[in-house]
Specification:
The chain has six helices and no strands. With about 140 residues, it is an all-alpha fold. α2 packs antiparallel against α5 and α4 runs antiparallel to α5. The protein is elongated, with a radius of gyration of 17 Å.
Length: about 140
């Protein structure tokens, strides 16, 4: 790992660590998705550079984040949506494992595309929640 890469990783860790105490649950999920998208992009880059260890590590980070997202699901409150997301997360983990074993960049791209749609939905939640708050309470 180069000095520059270590610096970038340190910045990422500080950025995430400093934001966590102030984040609400929606922001935490958004942060997880941001990290997930970064790890998947890293995996693609490592794949294209034929960096097997880097690819493996990035896929491992991605998988851990997906498992964390799955563990955060509330099946009592979320019902069918939580079940569908859990199934999607299961599929994504299996697809990443297969992509890692078979050196299949298309699997990484597929997971990135699928989960980017979910990330987009999470990005809209704060605006939707603010619409439900009366103007006098929002300030």
């Amino acid at each position: 790992m180069t000095f520059n890469q270590r610096g970038i990783n340190a910045y990422r860790n500080v950025n995430v660590s400093s934001a966590v105490p102030y984040a609400d649950s929606v922001q935490l999920i958004q942060m997880l998705f941001d990290g997930l998208m970064t790890s998947l992009a890293d995996a693609e880059g490592h794949f294209e550079r034929n960096d097997i260890k880097g690819k493996h590590d990035a896929i491992g980070r991605s998988t851990k984040i997906i498992v964390g997202l799955q563990g955060a699901l509330d099946f009592n409150q979320g019902g069918e949506l939580a079940t569908n997301l859990s199934d999607l997360y299961d599929y994504c983990v299996r697809r990443l494992l297969k992509a890692n074993i078979r050196n299949d960049i298309d699997g990484i791209k597929e997971v990135r595309s699928l989960l980017n749609e979910i990330k987009g939905a999470w990005e809209e939640i704060p605006q939707l929640l603010n619409k439900d708050i009366p103007a006098t309470m929002a300030s």
